[in-house]
Structure formats: structure tokens, C-alpha cells
Design a protein that fits this description.
Elements: H1 2-16, H2 22-26, E1 32-36, H3 43-59, E2 63-67, H4 74-81, E3 89-93, H5 98-101, E4 112-128, H6 136-145, E5 151-153, H7 161-172, E6 181-183, H8 188-196, E7 202-206, H9 207-215, E8 219-224, E9 250-258, H10 263-278, H11 280-288, E10 293-296, H12 298-318
Helix pairs in contact: 1-3, 1-10, 3-10, 7-12
Length: 323
């Protein structure tokens, strides 16, 4: 049944692109590189591999994941932006907007060709299993009493997608986030290792990324920054259960190419991602691993990138990163 489903998807793509120029009809004629600007074992890597596996089944060519996590991911998304727009280098984009304000390149939505969004994961606040902290409001109380009392892991370069979501909660509660002790991590997986080694006190990252350590009893999740509890993790409270009107926030993941990717190739990939997203296999696997599902086509994704850039600027101004 899986092979039949993939065959139907490929037929749909072939029918929809039969009038395309020869180069686009022939694409992909060789393996495609998929840049994942994160380390192995994190959410971006895991969801990227799921997507690449199904793209390979549809197109009959390898879609090879290349992990480029250096600099909190800036190396990978910069390489992606600078790749030749020939369809043979694409990648997984996530919350990229902070980098420009940190002086780490000048990447904007214009640096990429949007294809489709397939995921959104809410941020969460994790502690070591034996931590004295039991709730998110206890974290707030401790930071209000002494802003330097907790080492807060960003789950990537600071500020990160995860730490920006947590920062919004802190800002709304009257905490000056410039006074806090933020600690960069080489990705969420590395941050979790630092958490269990007592190198940091709390970590901002998604729940799915911490799932194996939650199951092993090594970490606890105080709250997820979502409007309600996650279906896959019903025992973890939503932040607004502890703090009134706690703002939701998290990380999006989307397939993009470098700027200038031919529309004909974009169309083939967009159709393929939609077929994958709608498949029972992909939906079931994402849900079983706790990853959030959110789809947007190329136009919807571009609109979201603009929103992401505007929201990031708001948070970073409050953090004093930009004037």
C-alpha cells in the first residue's frame, strides 16, 4: 500500500508538470543534497530525515541529509542560501531571523525560495529530574528574586528560537531578560546533555526533542508554551495553566531552496511535500514522535517568514539586542 501511495503521488507530479521545460521534467537526474542546519538527534534532523526519505521514494533519487550545525545552525542556513539554485541543494529552514540582528550574516526571506512548511513545534521548559523546580511559575519567582540564580540553556545560539519564545513569557511577567544568565548550546540534544550534567538549570527546547530523556526519567518538563496540552504528551501542562495568558511560541520547519530556484522545480517539490504531508504514514509517524503538524504552501510560507521576522525584531528590541 505504501508503494502504491507513492506511485500515485509520483503520477500526480508527472501529470502536473508534463508541460514544463525539459530541464525541470528531468529533475532530479542525480542525488539531491538536503542541508539540515542542526545536529543529529534533534527535531530538525528527525523531521528532515522523515521528509527526505519520502522525497526519495517519490522521485527515485537519493535525498541526502547533510548536518551543518556549526554556529547554532548559521553555517547550514548560510550554505543553503549561497547554493546554486539548480534544485540539487535544498534544505530545512527554521527560525532564522535572530541571526541577522546578532551580526551573523544578513539572511532574510529574500535569501530563500519558499517551498512548503510541514511542522511547528512549541517550545517547552525542561529541568533535570531531581531539580527543586516543579512549575514554571516557580522559575519566574526565582528569577524575579535573583535574575542570575538560574543558568538558562537556549537550545542553540543565544538568542535562539526556543529561548525567544521563553523570553516573551519572561518579558510579559516584567522580567528584564538582559539581566538573565543565558547559556548557548550546540543544539537541543547537546543542551539536554548539559542539563542532565547540571551544566545548566533549565533548558528551552521542544518536548519531542526531550522525549527519550523524559521516558528514561532523566529530565522533567515543567510546561509547554502552547495554547493547550499537546496530544502526544497529555501529562505536561500548558504554560497558561500556571501563568495567565502565557504567550505561545516555538519553532517552524519548512523545506526551502536558495533564492532563484526555478518555479518549475519548486512546483514539483511543493506537490511532493503536500502528498507526503497528507499521507497516513507521515501523519502517524510525526504524531507518534510528538512533532507538531502544520502545512503551508509556498505563498503561505512566505507570509509566515515575514511574520517571523517582524515578531523576532519585537522580542530582540525588548532584549536590548537591537535599538
Amino acid at each position: 500500500m505504501k508503494h502504491l501511495t507513492k506511485a500515485i503521488a509520483l503520477s500526480a507530479i508527472a501529470i502536473g508538470t508534463s508541460a514544463l521545460p525539459a530541464f525541470a521534467q528531468e529533475w532530479p537526474a542525480r542525488p539531491v543534497t538536503v542541508i539540515v542546519a542542526a545536529g543529529a538527534g534533534g527535531g530538525t534532523d528527525a523531521t528532515g530525515r522523515l521528509l527526505a526519505h519520502d522525497l526519495e521514494l517519490i522521485f527515485g533519487q537519493p535525498f541526502n541529509i547533510v548536518n551543518r550545525a556549526e554556529g547554532g545552525g548559521i553555517a547550514g542556513i548560510t550554505e543553503l542560501a549561497g547554493a546554486a539554485p539548480d534544485g540539487y541543494t535544498i534544505g530545512i529552514l527554521f527560525n532564522y531571523a535572530p541571526y541577522r540582528h546578532l551580526g551573523m550574516g544578513n539572511l532574510t526571506s529574500d535569501s530563500y525560495t519558499p517551498i512548503a512548511q510541514y511542522n511547528f513545534d512549541y517550545a517547552a521548559v525542561h529541568v533535570k529530574a531531581d531539580s527543586e523546580l516543579q512549575t514554571l511559575d516557580q522559575v519566574l519567582d526565582k528569577l524575579k528574586a535573583d535574575p542570575q540564580s538560574l543558568a538558562i540553556g537556549c537550545g542553540a545560539t543565544c538568542p535562539s528560537s526556543w529561548s525567544s519564545a521563553l523570553s516573551k513569557v519572561f518579558i510579559d511577567e516584567g522580567i528584564d531578560i538582559t539581566e538573565l544568565r543565558w547559556v548557548p548550546n550546540a543544539g537541543a540534544a547537546a543542551g539536554l546533555q548539559e542539563l542532565t550534567a547540571s551544566g545548566i538549570d533549565i533548558l528551552a527546547a521542544s518536548v519531542p526533542e526531550a522525549a527519550s530523556m523524559l521516558d528514561a526519567g532523566e529530565v522533567r518538563t515543567l510546561a509547554v508554551l502552547a495554547p493547550e496540552r499537546l496530544e502526544s504528551f497529555p501529562n505536561i501542562p500548558a504554560a497558561n495553566e500556571q501563568i495567565a495568558n502565557a504567550a505561545p511560541g516555538g519553532v517552524f520547519r519548512a523545506l526551502v531552496g536558495p533564492a532563484g530556484l526555478p518555479a518549475e522545480i519548486v512546483e514539483k517539490l511543493e506537490v511532493a511535500v503536500k502528498q507526503i504531508y497528507d499521507s497516513e504514514d507521515f501523519q502517524a509517524t510525526m504524531k507518534s514522535r510528538g512533532f507538531g503538524l502544520r502545512y503551508a504552501d509556498r505563498d503561505g510560507l512566505l507570509e509566515w517568514l515575514h511574520t517571523h521576522e517582524a515578531d523576532t525584531e519585537t522580542v530582540l528590541r525588548a532584549a536590548g539586542v537591537i535599538n
